[in-house]
Amino acid sequence: MNWLKSTLSAAVGTQEPIYGPDAIQSVAQQADETPYTVMTKENLRWKAYQYTNVETKTFYLMADDGNLVMVQVIYSNIAGIHTTAHFNTKIFNLKGDSPHIWHTDALSNFMFDEQMLSFGADNLTITLNEEGDAYHIKSTVNPDIIVDLKITRKAPGFVAGKDGTSYFGTDPKNPWGSMYHGFWPRCAVEGSITTKEKTYDLTGRGVFIPALQGMKPHHAAARWNFLNFQTPTFSAVMMEYTTPPSYGSTKVNVGGILKDGEIVYAGPNNTVTHTDFKQDPESDWPEPTSIKWEWTGKTADGQDFSAVVDGPLGKRQDRVDVMGEVPGFIKTIAGSVAGTRPYIFQFSPQEKLKLKVKVGDTETEEEGYMFSESTFIS
């Protein structure tokens, strides 16, 4: 048992000591001087670090006909000795009359281009154009789900602060971990995904998020909340994580509100509140049933800014047991050794919610559709 525990800890890690909140240099500290920075091609380069990290490029697609899709590449390195890459696709069945279509496929012979901007593998290409404002994704990795999509940025992308990164460690000059997120919140999508049953026309809107967790994921965050909200005029995003007690249960929040061609607001002064919840018997986590998302700060020209989305989440679309494929005895030990019990709750209510935006004395209100995730890890 002790041998198994020590072997497992090399992969999932045991709980860390209590370092305290000073051991995380939140991106919010950068934002005191620089609320956000517009993304360039430089921000889109793959890092491919040679130590434990998880790097992702995730695309959330909301088609004009109501379909909701996630497409994602995960590139991960464990302890610098084992590197893997996966291509994930998920087509949500929002009507609930059949299972979601979910595929996660291991990639072979994966590589990057010389500039580390595009990614390829056997039967997969994810290519960034020369202008740095559009990705073309083509995949025949799995014959049951053929992907051919183009995602084009329609408003500037952003990172919070100067570099979009929070750093972990007791010595700020020599951090031992990091967390990075970038955002293209307002994109146009064209193309399709073809399954055995049908071809999905995914013409519509999208969000692209490049991210990197430069440490063991459950050491960086104990909980997550994510929102993608789209109205005819606005695109709203928010990503919040709460560190484990080892880093003072510190909340780090990044969000933004965009229109075509402009960032109305972006920064870290935002909050997520689970205004109502119910205890989920299977996961034993408090599943939210209603959430309030609030953005607060200044516009680029210095006007007071606030925005809110507040309302019920509707019927849960999915509850993902992240360790569902792990053998039961390992899952039990992982929970007892590392305190990890990761579940993702996904929501996309079919009833429209309202985004209320206030710039200076001018208030705007628009209905739109949302996709949100609440994740509990440890």
Automatic annotation (TrEMBL):
InterPro entries: AttH-like_dom_sf (IPR023374), Ceramide-binding_SVF1 (IPR051385), Svf1-like_C (IPR033394), Svf1-like_N (IPR013931). Its main location: cytoplasm. It is a peripheral membrane protein. GO terms for biological process: lipid transport; response to oxidative stress. It comes from the Eukaryota. Residues 54-213 form the Svf1-like N-terminal domain. Belongs to the SVF1 family. This is Ceramide-binding protein SVF1. It comes from Penicillium canariense.
